[in-house]
Amino acid sequence: MVAPTRSLYVIQHTDSEHLGLVEDHLEGRNIRFTYMRPHATAGQLPATVKYTDGVILLGGGPWGAGGARDVPTLTEEVKLVKDAMLVGAPVVGFGLGAQILALASGGRVETAPLDFRLIQATRTGDDVLNGFMPDTFPMAIYMRDRPQPPPHADILAVDATGQPVIFQPAPNCIGFLGHPGFKQAMGEDLIMEFEEGPEAPAETLAAVRASQGAIEDALVPLMTGLIQITGWMDASA
How far, in Å, CA of 137 to CA of 123, rounded? Predict the structure, then answer.
């Protein structure tokens, strides 16, 4: 049976950060997406998620959700995610999007300075993400503040210090500390887009460039598991 066409809202907080490498994985599965750009449309967000199959919230560059420099539409986006979760719509968050997911699901956000680095994530079990998560894999982070998942969330991957990198606060909702489909050019564009930038970004840009192949390779199983978790390929969804 052929799965029906899906349609997602993608909330974009900056001109520079988009789905990146994730776009090909969605398009290849006939999953359509519509970018919503509240930063360029006077804060306009979708009024409802009723007519979509889920929401992806992207990062925000130097915007955060911990009180130091909150994204202007934070309150509205937390409400949007809560509404989506109430009706059972999948929610996926990258960076700032993961912070919003944490807040909407009963977690919190820890204030932290703007951070741009490449980390190594390690899965917490063989069966996480339906068994498709690699043992270890690189992930790029460009973000202010840090999400703290709610106590009931499952932690799917951690960094070298044991801090959550991927968390699951509901069966079909996933938060990523960084962007699993990050491109080097995205980092360069984020640095140029804002007056505020990370300290000494050249080293991280070089690390991302050197790890681009590994990021692409890890994204293949990550997206397979993510698509299964969200149900975006289910014929009955």
Answer: 9
What are 140's strand-pairing partners?
118, 179
CATH 3.30.2380.10 assigned to 6-230:
no
How confident is the model over 92-146, as pLDDT tens digits?
999 999 999 999 999 999 999 999 999 999 999 999 999 999 999 999 999 999 9
> Rg of the chain's alpha carbons, rounded to an integer?
16
What residue ranges do the domains of the chain occupy? 6-230
**C-alpha atoms less than 13 angstroms from C-alpha of 97 in its C-beta half-sphere:** 27
Distances (CA, A) of 161 to 15, 40, 65, 115, 165: 32, 37, 22, 16, 10
Using one digit for the tens of pLDDT, what is the confidence trace for 55-89?
999 999 999 999 999 999 999 999 999 999 999 99
Structure tokens at 204: 């991280």
